[in-house]
Amino acid sequence: MTDTTIASILARRVWDSRGRPTVEAEVRLGGGARGRAIAPAGASRGTHEAIDLRDGGAALGGMDVTLALGNVNGPIAARLQGMDATDQSRVDAELIALDNTANKARLGGNATIAVSMAILHAVAMANDMPLYAWLAAGNPVRLPLPEIQIFGGGAHAGRRVDIQDFMVIATGARTFAEALTMTAEVYRAAGQAMSDAGKLQGVADEGGFWPVFDSNEEALGMLTRAIEKAGYRPGEDMAISLDIAASEFGRDGRYTLGLDRRELDRDGMIAMLLDWCGRYPIVSIEDPLAEDDREGMRAFTAAIGGRIQIIGDDYLVTSAGRVDAAASDRACNAVLIKPNQAGTVTETRAALDAGQRAGFGTIVSARSGETEDVTIVHLATGWNAGQLKVGSFARSERMAKWNEALRVEEALGPDAVFAGRAALAVNPW
Ligand code: PGA
Ligand code: ZN
Predict the structure, then answer these.
(1) Whose CA is nearest to atom 6 of ligand 1?
(2) What is the pLDDT of residue 415?
(3) Is this model's pTM higher than 0.85 or not?
(4) If you measure from the C-alpha of residue 244 to the centroid of ligand 1, how many angstroms do you get, rounded to a whole number?
(5) All structural domains of the chain
């Protein structure tokens, strides 16, 4: 048995897909195994998620991470060296105790998540197992159903449109590889349609086409036509998934749609979304109401939670406690799982477990600021989450994840099980 004692932990500054600094942690175990992981960064962040520790000041727009790096190389390394890396929950408990805040404000969630995930990688290597297999611990695994962005908006596109993600889900796909092929056809068709309309102006932060639309709803029409142009039946082979990210433009039950020049109250916002659900092949909506609008989330879920998946992202911030509360509240029926919202692997897993206990759909997700790090693909597969959200079908920080899942599917061979549309919290089929 190889020595899995933590021998050293080192942090270095690397750069994310927006050209901003971020934290990479590298862990070495006594037996020589190594693990490495990079913290991602969100733009439309929930108020209650773990804090990224940034230096502030003038340099790099205040985004530098030397304080977070110092926390890894100093107190975190000192505290964790000599511990057995195999006991992830004990290691993470030490990180939580050392930080001793509700939101990782002292050490930085960017420092803690990089270390926590690097330890996971090192242990998998020490056991000579791919990470997904190590995480599965002998339990069945499924390749996740991908939701893939076609148009980017909101905080990822200079607020050119209010809605953040216009995505598709290949509900007719029988394998992960087929889901990607189908999505590639829709992405191409959407690009062609944008070009034909004189609207092709590059891509947003997650690789979806820049949303040169005159209204939020115009994007829904264009997306539905792209599905048809690609040769798929909307709502059958290929369906629409939205991330409204309503916390970005809603507060105290009031919602301001800048593009549509409309201010809606809670009921108006719900009515607009229900109308869209009636006219477009939508199977999933994330953060339909703002993070402070519990009443709105409950009303929306009561109205349509029996027919579509309703995901809490900013609303739940990968917190097991919030998932439990939302389940008893019936405020949504699915949870987005972003490791850096929680700050450690153990807390991330706890939020996923809470979701699965509640019968929620569970979607492991990337952030808008990403890197070549592919850890989330292994979490989604090894933990049998069922769904994966990574952004669009362009830019290598996105493609690295999709391509890694293809390798996993191939490695599993005939044993590979694709979660498919059954992974959605609600199945209209
Ligand atoms: P973020 O966006 O990474 O900018 O928070 C992703 C999301 O809202 O799902
Ligand atoms: Zn979101």
Answers:
(1) 367
(2) 87
(3) yes
(4) 10
(5) 6-128 (3.30.390.10), 145-423 (3.20.20.120)
